[in-house]
Amino acid sequence: MVVLHLFFTLRKTSLNGTSTKKDTRKLFHFFLTDVEEIRVIPNDFLTLTINHSYENMSEPVSLESRIKIIDILRGFALLGIAMVHFTEQYYAGQAPEIHANLTAKTLADQIVMGFIGIFIQGKFYMIFSFLFGLSFFIQSEKSADTGSFILRFTWRLLILFAIGLLHHLHYRGDILTIYAVLGVLLILFYKLPDRALLMVGLILILNLPGFSLRLYEGIRNVSGSFTTDDQASLLAYYDTLKTGSYFSILAANWKELIPKFEFQVLSGRIYITTGLFLLGLYAGRKKFFERWMDGIPFIQKLRKTAWWILAGCVVFVLVILGVTQVLHLELNQSLQFAIGGLAYDVFNACLATIYVTSILLLYRQEKWRHRWMRFYAVGRMGLTTYLVQSVLGVLIFFSVGLGWLNESGAVICLLIGLAVYVLQVYGSEWWMKRFRYGFFEWLWRSLTYLKWQEFRR
Question: Could you tell me the residue range of the domain that residue 162 belongs to?
Fold first, then answer.
């Protein structure tokens, strides 16, 4: 992920640490020039086969091994997604006040939720979304006919929306319906020039449209909260998940479909997700993951810059808090959302960048490469992994299964989530030795081509 590329470039910082215009042009050249074509064959959720060799490589890492890093990153993202979803007990929304301690019942639970909020929540979905945009590029590269590709990709999005809608009826936190709708924008931005694509992507990732709206509301003193005070409806939904029938859960989640999209707009996540799609498309155009071993100095600089900007976000928030306390200023809710939200969005982008660049740098080492490969199979079948997590989460926490909602705190739920993920790691390795695709990847692919695809190895 190269979300901080713009900041790094505008500072005119070169790959070797000097600050010259010539080196700055070299840095732009690394990202903005086309390279030799590489044939790729996608396996739906971004499994690639490469038939091209690089020369004069200084590191003992094959090109095929470099591309595996994409699936490893997806598998890593799914670990974070599992941690968030299980600690929130697959509730995915505002709990009623009477059950406000749904996840944090003890001091240990509060520490876990603080850790999740700072280091996990909002970061791992960014990596997952970025890879979705990258998969769009790879599929487009495979197709020689742009018109047929657009039709097929649109059809794929419709299928994804159907799968996501079925998922949403069981878990209102579903992301697939959102991906399917926002995926249409990839088609619209497909021909955008590289520099424009990067700029638009960064503007959206930093949620500047949402920040501008909140700032406008704050200046006009208009409330822009996306929470609700309707405790009766909040309690009714909680009771449905806790004690309701299977069909009552489906009906309750159906009513949550439109509010879910409204939350995406009001919170600004719709802009962030779209920006990550575009950044993934941009990285695909520049063949970043085919060439990343050639840009190690840049990746190291990128990670260092991300750390500095992240630290700047923390200092910025502390200064704002200090000034408001000293001057006895009271910011209205919209201004709090505007300032705090901007800092949080930049913080999330920086930390996601640090995670990705750290994995890339560690992957060069043989001992770490072996460890990261444990994420490979679970990442190859990412759609199946994501949906199976939800199936198990619903069966564990909702009334249709064990009904453990609000029975345990974040510590126990996190351990359950980690146990589920470990089982998925071993299960995915077993599965991929016997089958070409994850089950839902195979189904998605078969429906795309309206023909059953070869499944077993």
Answer: 35-432
